[in-house]
Amino acid sequence: MKHAIYTLALGFGLSAMATTATAACYVDYKAKKDNPLKLHYGVAAVPDGACTSPRAAAKAIAPRLSAAGWTLLNIVSLFDDSGLNGRKANAGPYFLRF
């Protein structure tokens, strides 16, 4: 009986981990570079903790963009895996780059 309970508990634990592992968070954003002016629209993955608000997402992605010489202009939206395919073509080379 104990073995069956442990097996069930392990099964529930693994299924819960699998569910949280697939629940990713993404943002689409706009960024710029100066001299000469360049603009881009991109999509980036952010940690779950940064998926609570656009401000939190901006804090997560701005340093990554800055390291490549880009300045974050704004976060357009926050979304999960279901929104990725519809944004891939628009983001072009900036799809999941930063």
UniProtKB/TrEMBL annotation:
Span of the signal peptide: 1-23
UniProt keywords, alphabetically: Signal
Protein name: DUF4177 domain-containing protein
UniProt source species: Litoreibacter albidus
Lineage, broadest ranks: Bacteria, Pseudomonadati, Pseudomonadota, Alphaproteobacteria, Rhodobacterales
